[in-house]
Amino acid sequence: MHTDSGDLVAALDIGGTKIAGALVDGAGRPRVRARRPTPAREDGATVMAAVAAVLDELARTGEWPLVRAVGIGSAGPVDASAGTVSPVNVPGWRGFPLVAEVARRVGGLPVTLVGDGVAMTAAEHWQGAARGRADALCMVVSTGVGGGLVLGGRLRSGPTGNAGHIGHISVDLDGEPCACGSRGCVERIASGPNIARRALEAGWRPGSDGDRSAAGVAAAARAGDPVALASFDRAARALAAGIAATATLVEIEVAVIGGGVAEAGDVLFGPLREHLRDYAVLSFASGVEVLPARLGSDAGVVGAAAAAAAEAGLWGLGSGTGEGTGGGTASGM
């Protein structure tokens, strides 16, 4: 076990638009960065070549000899127990053996895989808005809706690395079909593209900048547009129902929300907190605090590093300490 404060973790944050890499230190700081666009419409080998290019750039730095483990946070679904990924937005990867492919390239270092929502959760619990909280739900609300759980002070990623995936809790039993195959999922209502779609279908039109995204809807909502406000209110209700269900099931004390949609600020958080009072009514669920995430775009690499450090026993985050963010991740070795 390595515990020296100079130890680093190489971290990858893999999504449908970019592959970010960093060498992260024991204070959660990315010391070296690398980045490539994700060739999401290409075949699996081409996507892996982009991952390898990020790893190669990191490995060429003078700090690579300090790396003791590798962490990967990937768009999902992932299967940490098998070391495979099948991101919905990367069609070339279906059951792709990402852990084995990365392990081949990193000289025998242990490799840990978690879903991107779990990585964000690890980051926010280690260095962000959920720091010091024993029981938390952390969510990414963006193109999709993902999440992860901290229970009893530890990251609980589940056998396959997908626990806490709140985006696919159904909150509308007769709702619209979701891309996952179910109906009325939180993601189908609260993700950025669905906020924008619903506003456009209800008659909202973008302003002079032509921004048809959820950010454009948020700007209109801040200016008082009733259709834009209604679309964000609907998203907030879906999120509130999902958070309340989670609080009722596992007794969380805080829900941390990040991702692009969370940048809407009070347009989202105001109605979300109001609706949560309507849904989380039992005494043990009614005190859930809702907070914005703090780590922004670094959450993916910082969280992947935290998960790998916990598996490797680095920085006091090892699973044997009872205090870390580890647990439930898969090693490539």
TrEMBL record:
The record's section on PROSITE patterns has: ROK (PS01125)
Q: Which domain of life is it from?
A: Bacteria
Q: Which InterPro entries match?
A: ATPase_NBD, ROK, ROK_cs
Q: Which PANTHER family match?
A: N-ACETYLMANNOSAMINE KINASE, ROK (REPRESSOR, ORF, KINASE) FAMILY
> Record's family?
Belongs to the ROK (NagC/XylR) family.
Q: What is this protein called?
A: ROK family protein
Q: Which organism does this sequence originate in? A: Streptomyces luteoverticillatus
